[in-house]
Write a structure and sequence with these properties.
This protein is mostly helical. The protein has a single domain, classed as Growth Hormone, Chain: A (Up-down Bundle), CATH 1.20.1250. The chain is about 80% helix and about 0% strand. The protein has 15 helices and no strands. α2 packs parallel to α9, α9 packs parallel to α12 and α11 packs across α12. The radius of gyration is 19 Å and the shape is globular.
């Protein structure tokens, strides 16, 4: 039997927390959007607005997390995030109109802002420096299991094995289980115990600009993909041999399974270097958006698109975590929150703006327009890597 050390408890609690908050809480709306369209009579603009509400809640939760961390330590924001997710899931499960749906998605979306960043400080407290990159990668990759499980459940919904409201009720129960695990796995105590300073000087300097730029680009690319990719495939006629809406489940299954590549992020970085790896990751983001925009009915293209996107998301998530630790030593959560604010801004703005573009033109055009953003980032990192060869 494996001894449950503080490191294992922390990694387990973090894995579950990210599985909940970045699985159904953050990505469930985009996955279930084809069903929500019918249940609540949503148009594309409304869908983009509701998606942005969830990401805006994520943004608002980040500074609250930083304040809570200074006041009471890391455990409380993680528990609060799990409870927020559970409440949001319950509201969605019982919603009778689009307003209720929006409230539930907003509550659930806030959980991502509470549940992830505190693990940087917690890792500095209980995990050895040599083990931190792998532990933080494990925590970040919890998302893949959450996404894959949500995709599998939605597949059951489309084959009439489950009612969608029952699934969201089950998500609420999982959120409460995550809160209980966080109470055991995340260390209590104030951030002051790990020599954390609240001094924010040094967060605006030249060498951290690439971190913020990568975070913003990631936020836009991922939020637009989550909000519209599955819906675009379904609206285009789905995948041959499946009920139309089941195509969304296959996308998120591929997304989650391929996201397990995030566990190897540390090894890829050691082999390629951080800058070159970032160039490849953002090229994958751009490719995923182009593929799903142009060939939404081809099994191979859609699954490759989702797989590329899932792998890119998990890798860049892990990179943001340990890159911020390197740039802001001793201020793990504050540095990570600074990066996540960039993710949150991109996530909140992207779906709302691109929803308007999609309404005026087409979803395919909006996805292609979004693809230019990670493409530019990829070229920028490639030039940076070549310059320092």
């Amino acid at each position: 039997m494996v001894a449950m050390t503080p490191t294992i408890w922390l990694a387990s609690a973090g894995f579950v927390a990210t599985a909940i908050s970045f699985g159904p809480a953050r990505m469930g709306f985009g996955l279930f959007l084809p069903t929500f369209r019918e249940a609540f009579d949503l148009d594309t603009k409304q869908a983009g607005f509701i998606a942005s509400l969830g990401f805006l809640a994520f943004l608002i939760a980040l500074p609250v997390t930083a304040w809570l961390g200074r006041q009471v330590g890391q455990r409380m924001p993680v528990v609060l995030g799990a409870v927020s997710a559970s409440l949001g899931f319950a509201v969605v499960a019982s919603a009778q109109n689009s307003a209720g749906l929006g409230v539930g998605i907003t509550l659930a979306g806030a959980s991502a802002g509470f549940c992830w960043a505190p693990f940087n400080d917690a890792a500095e407290r209980v995990v050895s420096p040599a083990m931190r990159p792998s532990s933080l990668s494990t925590i970040a990759t919890g998302t893949t299991i959450g996404v894959a499980a949500t995709g599998a459940l939605y597949l059951g919904v489309n084959f009439d094995a489950f009612d969608w409201r029952l699934i969201w009720g089950a998500f609420a129960a999982f959120g409460l289980a995550g809160a209980i695990l966080a109470m055991r796995g995340v260390p209590g105590g104030r951030v002051a115990e790990c020599s954390q300073t609240t001094d924010t000087r040094g967060f605006v300097r030249r060498d951290v600009a690439p971190l913020y730029g990568a975070a913003l680009c990631f936020g836009i690319s991922n939020a637009v993909y989550l909000a519209f990719a599955a819906d675009h495939v379904v609206a285009s006629g789905g995948l041959d041999g499946l009920p139309d809406k089941a195509a969304a489940a296959m996308i998120f299954l591929s997304y989650g399974i391929c996201g397990l590549a995030g566990l190897a992020t540390g090894r890829f970085e050691a082999w390629l270097g951080l800058v070159a790896l970032l160039g490849i990751i953002f090229a994958a983001f751009a490719s995923s958006l182009v593929l799903v925009a142009l060939v939404p009915r081809a099994w191979g293209a859609v699954l490759v698109s989702a797989g590329l996107h899932g792998a890119a998301v998990m890798m860049v998530s892990a990179i943001l975590s340990f890159w911020s630790l390197r740039l802001f030593p001793g201020r793990g959560s504050l540095g990570f929150i600074a990066a996540l604010i960039g993710v949150a801004i991109g996530s909140a703005v992207g779906p709302a703006v691109l929803g308007v573009v999609a309404e005026a033109t087409s979803v395919a055009a909006a996805l292609l327009l979004t693809a230019t953003i990670p493409l530019i980032a990829s070229l920028g990192f490639a030039i940076w890597a070549i310059r320092y060869l």
